[in-house]
Structure formats: C-alpha cells, structure tokens
Amino acid sequence: MIRPTRTSGGIAALALALAVTALLLENPAAAFAAGSLALFLLWRGWWFERDIAAAVTSLTVTRTVDRTILRQGTAATVRVQINLTAPPGMDIRVRDRRRTAISGQSILGFRPYQTGDDPNLIDWKITARRDALYVRQMTGLSGGRRGRHAGR
Q1: What does the pLDDT profile of the chain (152 residues) look like in tens digits?
Q2: Distance (Å) of CA 91 to CA 58, 85, 88, 145
Q3: 125 half-sphere exposure, CB direction, 13 A CA radius
Q4: CA 138, CA 142: separation in Å to the nearest integer?
Q5: Residues with Cβ < 8 Å from 92, sequence gap 6 or more?
Q6: Where are the alpha helices (DSSP H) in 26-121?
Q7: Is the CA virtual torsion 47, 53, 58, 59 positive or negative?
Q8: What sign does the CA torsion over 20, 25, 26, 29 have?
C-alpha cells in the first residue's frame, strides 16, 4: 500500500487551505502559493512514480520448497528470497503471503461399497475396472476420514 508521507500530506493541506483563502478573499498571492505547492506535489508524484518503476523492474522473487515427500496434513517449508534495488530515500517493505493450509477435501483411498454408503461417493471408473462397486474415502481439512463409516 502506498502511503503519503506526513510532509506531503501537510503540503497538500496547506495548498488546499491557501486555495480556499484565495477564492474567498480574492487574494492573488494565496492563489500563486497554492498553485506553486500543487505543482510541487505533482512534480514529487512524477518523481515517485519514476522511482517506483525503477524499483519494480529490479524486483526478483525466488521461492524454494524443501525436498520432502508431501502428504496431506504435513507442513512444507518454503523459503522466499526477494532482491530489490531501492532508490535513495525510498523505504520499501515487502510482505509475503501468510501461512495457509490447503483447504478442501481430497480422496484418501477407495474401498468396496457397503450397504448404507452414500451413492454419490461411488467411483465409477474403479467400479468398471473391478466389476464391483467401489466408493471413494474422502479426507477433511484435518486430514482424517469423513463420512458415515469413518471408524472402519
């Protein structure tokens, strides 16, 4: 998020106050001062845009994942290296994404169909190959089995 400095916010407030004063009192000196401050802010904005464009073009991000076998419920370590050339006088802070777990359900395995199983869990490809009904065993967010027959 790009935030103006306290100085630039103060200059903008002063320019606005001088512009209002110039309109109410018909004071040309206040109008000239407000215009000068507005031009200064526009020039600083252009300069900032030029500096940020230079910083963005120098930005490189490298992510490295540890070489481990990943299974559901295990943590993966990801190292992030950020290289950036910041122009003089510019303070840049970079935030990476927060730790997040993979959400949703996935298939833990397959087993033969039993009376009372949910017909929506029948896997028709395996059923066709084996010539018998097979159901998918789903995993939940915590990595455990879900469903009516979770304890089997």
Answers
A1: 677 889 989 999 999 999 999 999 999 999 999 999 999 999 988 998 999 898 889 989 888 887 777 666 677 778 888 898 888 888 888 777 766 655 556 778 889 999 998 888 899 999 999 999 999 888 764 444 444 444 44
A2: 15, 11, 9, 49
A3: 2
A4: 11
A5: 55, 84, 86
A6: 28-57
A7: positive
A8: negative
